[in-house]
Design goal:
It contains 10 helices and 8 strands. By secondary structure, it is of the alpha+beta class. The strands form 2 sheets. A 5-stranded antiparallel beta sheet has the order 4-3-2-1-5. A hairpin with a 5-residue loop joins strand 1 (198-200) and strand 2 (206-212). Helix 4 (85-117) runs antiparallel to helix 5 (128-151). It is elongated. It starts with a helix and ends in a 39-residue tail after the last helix.
């Protein structure tokens, strides 16, 4: 870094330690100027941006800017004054290493704080925040370590070969963790479900998705029990999402009536019950379907819609109760399976002869005693 001629002449007349102090202080003054002028400019540019992300970025970059400019001043001072190579080379490399470490730590912390703010943002899905944070931290760490190795002229070829072997070992040891991580990515990219959706797992459990992390998904069942399922398992399983593409759900209420019942009357009653139920939506309108001639009943099905999967069980309960009361009041029989059992008996007893009992003093001739 070249300095102006007046500055060079001024520094040349000072002792080396005095010149180094002047250069470092000068760069710190430049950092203060950047802080004053730069903040005003950036705030004017980001004033129209909603949220606190821009403020967090500015606050966390201040320290890194100050330290970096101070370290750059020390680097320039070392380069300006004649210092023996045995001291200058390690000092310059150490100064640049400190700058890399400062910015690496600052960017990792910045990523964590920004991810905390944007967790509830409407622009970014909540389940993607921890994934992006982990990827950001990993990329910054890898780039920082690589720059440090190059700066200190360390051959990275053997390290890359060793890293390949270590990567295989770590991959085998942490295959479940990696499978869950990539499973979370697949679930997000496929849009399988989101927080708040009602899902039915392959095991038959039904509940609301409470949280989606990098490792697992938490589902709250109707019994208010939290079920934690690894993302790798969900990624390879059949999941029924009851909340997509719309939250409206159609429910089915099967009803059986006795043979001989007026089917038109049954249809009118079922439609009237559905229209009177507050949980049932007006659009799409309820409908009744005559499904089949059963063994002991005429089987109907009442089809109607509710606003959300959370009320399906309650709506079915209300409709079943109303149907039963109405059928009882109108004398409509709800049959149940009957079986006639005929029992036939036959006189199949075969008489058998018995020997007369021996009299007093007589001996049995059948060999008995």
């Amino acid at each position: 870094m070249q300095l102006d001629r007046p500055v060079v002449e001024l520094l040349a007349g000072l002792a080396p330690w005095q010149g180094i102090v002047v250069i470092v202080v000068g760069f710190l003054a430049l950092a203060a100027l950047v802080h004053t002028v730069g903040d005003r400019f950036v705030r004017q540019v980001t004033a129209r941006i909603d949220g606190d992300v821009d403020d967090i970025v500015l606050r966390n970059l201040h320290t890194a800017v100050y330290l970096s400019l101070g370290l750059v001043g020390a680097y320039v001072a070392t380069d300006f004054y004649e210092v023996s190579p045995g001291i200058a080379v390690p000092l310059e490399a150490g100064t640049l290493s400190a700058i890399i470490v400062v910015w690496m730590v600052t960017l990792i912390r910045l990523g964590r704080k920004v991810s905390t703010v944007v967790t509830d943002s409407k622009y970014i899905d909540r389940q993607m925040v921890p994934i992006l944070q982990n990827v950001w931290s990993a990329v910054i760490s890898i780039v920082g370590v690589f720059l440090l190795l190059v700066l200190w002229r360390i051959d990275v070829t053997p390290l890359l070969a060793s890293a390949g072997i270590v990567g295989i070992i770590v991959g085998l040891a942490a295959r479940d963790t990696l499978a869950n991580f990539f499973g979370s990515l697949s679930l997000y990219l496929d849009g399988t479900y989101r927080v708040g959706d009602y899902v039915v797992l392959e095991s038959g459990e039904r509940g609301r998705v409470e949280d989606i992390s990098v490792r697992s998904t938490v589902v709250r069942t109707r019994d208010d029990i939290l079920v934690t399922v690894p993302n790798a398992t969900l990624n390879s399983a059949a999941i029924v999402n009851e909340s997509t593409p719309k939250r409206k759900r159609r429910i089915r209420v099967p009803v059986g009536v006795a043979y001989g019942t007026d089917i038109d009357e049954v249809e009118e009653i079922l439609l009237a019950i559905a229209e009177a139920e507050g949980l049932v939506q007006e659009r799409p309108s309820p409908r009744v379907r005559f499904r089949e001639f059963g063994d002991s009943a005429l089987n109907f099905e009442l089809l109607c819609w509710v606003s959300t999967p959370a009320v399906t069980a309650r709506a079915i309960h209300h409709l079943n109760s109303a149907v039963y009361r109405r059928f009882q009041a109108d004398g409509i029989e709800i049959p149940f399976p009957k079986r006639d059992i005929s029992v036939r008996t036959a006189d199949s007893a075969v008489p058998f002869e018995t020997a007369p009992e021996p009299g007093p003093g007589e001996v049995s001739t059948d060999g008995g005693h």
